[in-house]
Amino acid sequence: MGFFDKVKSIKNFITGGAAKVYLDSSEIVFGEQFELRIRVQVDDADLKIDRVYVEIEGIEEIEVPDVDVIYEYDDEEERRLEIVRAETTTTELEITVDDGQVLNANEKYEWTVNIELPSDALPPYNGQYCQHSYMARASLDCFGNDPDSGWIELDIN
């Protein structure tokens, strides 16, 4: 391994830049099984992975405007109108799509996985102050920073 190969290896270790990972889905109907497709374009060096995996999270967010908030500083009260925000994770799934292998440099790979949300999963909704949505991320488990697709909101009907 030459000097520049070592530099590339270190860069990929730190940034997760050893491959580009893409995630897309079939049409999703809440309560029914759906398919996610993971596509990977490996950079210019072979990549040893321990697994390909997908994470799915249900996220409930609330945002209430014009909340009267009281602050105390040095025994004096100050009132302000603020936007109050909160978020909670309602569902967490991690699914192994494929086992460890070596992905060859400059090659493209593709996997599909069928997903079924748990029976107690909340449906997606979008209210005046509150919303519930699902996010997904595909990743390659490897030494260093895992290359991933980034979090993508799932369009669920």
UniProtKB/TrEMBL annotation:
InterPro entries, A to Z: Arrestin-like_C
Entry superkingdom: Bacteria
Name by which UniProt lists this protein = Uncharacterized protein
What Gene3D superfamilies does its record include?
2.60.40.640
Q: What is the scientific name of the source organism? A: Vibrio gazogenes
